[in-house]
Amino acid sequence: MHTSSLRQNFLAELDHELANTRRVLERVPHDQAEYRPHPKSMTLWQLATHVVNLLAFKTLFLQADGRDFLDPNAPKPGPTPTSHAELLTRFDEYSATLRQALEASDDEQLTYNFRLHRGEQTIFEQPKATAVRLMGLNHSIHHRGQLTVYLRLLDVPVPGLYGPSADEK
């Protein structure tokens, strides 16, 4: 009987989701960067950049024990990408770093807690595996889904993610 580790399962899921996310990002039209479907919505470019920057947060969950939003020395993503090529380059770099961090971890390390906080106020404290899943993968998939709606509203063909999309039938 073959058993798969938590880390191996995460790696398989991560590879699948990163490939899907890259396919969505490849279709984000930079010439529509300021588009927003509603005044309360992020712009297309803010949302695409957020999806990419979340990869760095997932890496942080694996490599650190916590993050204080009030810490001025805490790691922050670089400046907003100014071109489609820059966005995809950052995605590829952050994806590779995240994958390396996950490969370097083990199942025991994934049980250690990660605390996200703002000074003394705890936003969440969860085992690293839970943080990666909830605030990492699920959070990214949520925003990727928003991106696909933006693409649809801009009449950009939407890639199939878990089977063919209406544009691929």
Shape, please?
globular
Structural class: mainly alpha
Low-confidence regions: none
Task: Name the strands of the widest sheet in spatial order.
Answer: 1-2-3
Number of helices: 4
Number of domains: 1
Mean pLDDT metric? 90
Please provide the ordered H/E string of secondary-structure elements. HHEHEEH
Biggest β-sheet: count, sense, barrel? 3 strands, mixed
The CATH C-level class name = Mainly Alpha
Task: State the helicity in percent bands.
Answer: 40-55%
Protein traits:
169 residues, mainly alpha, Four Helix Bundle (Hemerythrin (Met), subunit A), 4 helices, globular
In short:
This protein is mainly α. Helices cover 52% and strands 9% of the residues.
Tell me about this structure.
- The protein has 169 residues and is mainly alpha-helical.
- The protein has one domain (11-153): Four Helix Bundle (Hemerythrin (Met), subunit A), CATH 1.20.120.
- The chain is 52% helix and 9% strand.
- The protein has four helices and three strands; from the N terminus they run ααβαββα.
- A three-stranded mixed sheet has the order 1-2-3.
- The termini are far apart.
- The model has no long low-confidence stretch (mean pLDDT 90).
